[in-house]
User: Fold this.
Amino acid sequence: MYAVIKTGGKQYRVAKDDIIEVEKLDTAIGGSVTLDHVLLIGNDGNAKIGAPTVAGASVKATVLNQKKDDKIIVFKKKRRQNYRRKNGHRQNLTVLKITDIKG
Assistant:
């Protein structure tokens, strides 16, 4: 059984015992999270598609870690104008382990 969930503006295909990295959720390490925006639930070729979400479906997960992603460099330049700007950014992430899918 698998599900397609939406969190942090992105969609993820998850199954039981999967480990995923999502944008930061305000939950302590070891805490549990219920994700209610389930867009699709599939099981052996049968799929329930929501409009926009599947009614009564939820995915439960446990928070394994709160961490930061790798640094990306943002560089802006305009040629012949002596305009250069360099910034770095590290996104905060939450590592989740999927424990249960209810549909």
Residues 16 and 50 are 20 Å apart (CA to CA).
